[in-house]
Input
Amino acid sequence: MFKFIKQYASTIENCQVYPMISLIIFFVFFVVLLWFVIKMDKKSVTHLSNIPLDKPEIESNH
Amino acid sequence: MQTEKFYYDNKTVRNFAYATILWGIVGMLAGLWVSLQLVFPSLNITQYGSFGRLRPLHTNAVIFAFVGNGIFMGVYYSLQRLCKARMYNDTLSKIHFWGWQLIIVFAAITLPLGITSGKEYAELEWPIDIAITLIWVVFGWNMFATIIKRREKHLYVAIWFYIATFVTVAVLHIVNSFELPVTLFKSYSWYAGVQDALVQWWYGHNAVAFFLTTPYLGMMYYFMPKAANRPVYSYRLSIIHFWALIFLYIWAGPHHLLYTALPNWAQSLGVVFSFMLIFPSWGGMINGLLTLRGAWDRVRDDVILKFMVVAVTAYGMATFEGPMLALKNVNAIAHFTDWIIAHVHIGALGWNGMLTFGIIYWLIPRIFSTTLFSKKLAHNHFWLATLGMIFYAVPMYWAGFTQSSMWKQFTESGQLKYSFLETVTYLKPFYAMRSFGGTLYLIGVVLMVYNIYKTVKSGKLVENEVAEAPPLVVEHKRQSGEHWHRWIERKPVYLMVLSLIVILIGGAIELIPTFLIKSNVPTISSVKPYTPLELQGRDIYIREGCYVCHSQMVRPFRSETERYGEYSKAGEFVYDHPFQWGSKRTGPDLAREGTGNLKKTDGWHFRHLREPSSMSEGSIMPAYSFMLEQNLDTSSTAAKIRAMQTMGVPYEKNFDRKANQLLMEQANKISKNLLSDSIRVSPRKEVIAIIAYLQRLGKDISKP
Output
């Protein structure tokens, strides 16, 4: 099994594609992340950021 | 809803805090001592106290003992509060605490004895590696079980940083520690040459990322809001900070290997990702500093906030400098010089040190239910630490620039302007100033010890601090329309798996091709395995930590090929378990020591090792006169050869049986050679083996 992969991988000629592939992966990852972070609702953000401070009055009720 | 009463475990927190302080002093003392050795080489007292063995002791003590215990102190305190739950199991906490201290003690004993794997920041030998793995699992188990039985539904961002730390350090440690044991105290890295270098710096860089940075960021996100009594500036930013940071960091390792024999595509990968790291890092710094918005007036009087502000600023400086250092043209200047030493100390003294002190001053009075003994002393500590850092870093930056420019200057007739030795003696005053800076910093820590001692005396430890919270109603299903990230936040295991995937992508794309694609390490037919004597000599080289001062990697610059000879090729290192490229040139590169214009007689090496300054006036290299008296341990030769064979080094069949005979033949030759230079020394001495190794360096490639 491992041999098979090894043979296959050693035929990849141009490794210059690696930096490109990884950049694209990161870019996609980052855009998705950004999208969801922007869409987070305000109430839960306030709740989360107050967790260390132990202020019960800000406790939201989800 | 009915609330539950429970108790926070403060005793373990206190223990880790004490251990942090104790090992901090040990590690800093070791650092001060080795810095003095570079000014006064006569301070290399006996083989157990020589620079090459003590510098790893300093780095290991600061990273794994001081910062390590600091992490556990911070995690055990904040995790319980963030989860509204006591640590899962007191016995696990105890095993974790004492196990970690035991590992440190073993490290402190074995490193001076020369028991080392020869890989920077991963020097500890295989039995200790196994112990580290086990204790790390205990830590992870205790942490996860606490998270699972928590009373707060959502995982605050600090906990994600802790989880990512746990997962990644585990992966790094295991992958980098693949080694073949030869005896109880000696093993060989499973990887060789270029591959070993790549794995090592993938590990090394991410040890910085996931041991010195992510857990401390988690602590920043908890203790800074606590100390300032206001929430973090932007929680959204902290999410981006987290994911972008762990995604990018894992790729950045190859920036330690620019211009080396590492394949070019891997170098480019390192450069690009290192550069991008500046954005999440600065996002995190800004998030930390802006947490104090509207409270800046308090920073003036509040020493704890002062420590934290300088810590976060130092984080910002180091993470600006890091990406710059990863640019190829800057790296060409800075690599192998004292600039890097300055860079890491901005991180260690500034970021880790200052944040640790701030947290200790904040936390000790609280768990002892008292107030800090003296704010004034703490202020003095703060100023000593800040000044110490400046007196440390400025001379080192200066030394780094000077060193680099002296290495690279040519005369008009096209010759190198300075001998290496001239650059060494020129730097001594800078090294002395650095020791002064370190002393200031250490005095500050001593003030802290006194202050904390008095504080502790004035209070009483609240071993079990009472708290109350409603129990968590377990929801297993993702509610429809619920935000995916909120859902993940509630699921620590998914969070762990996701961060694991994120770091594995980077690791895999970087490491696997180097292992599988043949063209990445072109073979050179004239490169042959070491003779048994050379192999033994190489192991002495590793034991003595010569690699902390000497590189074995000639970069393709004219200034280097003029000084050292032909630049290094990937194929030259295929039998090097472990690689010994080094990262710092306190002494000259040795990759071509046995050839060309560097070639010296056996007698020269003998005299130089006995008393370096007798051959190179003003040298700061430690004397190795004990090698003239100590016999080479040849009982291990056969086992070493067999280990090499197991890893694919092509010694002929049954070579192990005649290895010692061949070893003696070569040793006799060198001994005779020395005799003709009027040096009488038995062929059984260690010095013979190390001379054999030094004379071999660079030979293969210069063969016709």
Remarks:
- The interface with chain B takes residues 5-6, 9-10, 12, 15-16, 18-19, 21-23, 25-26, 29-30, 33-34, 36-41, 44-54, 62 of chain A (CB under 8 Å).
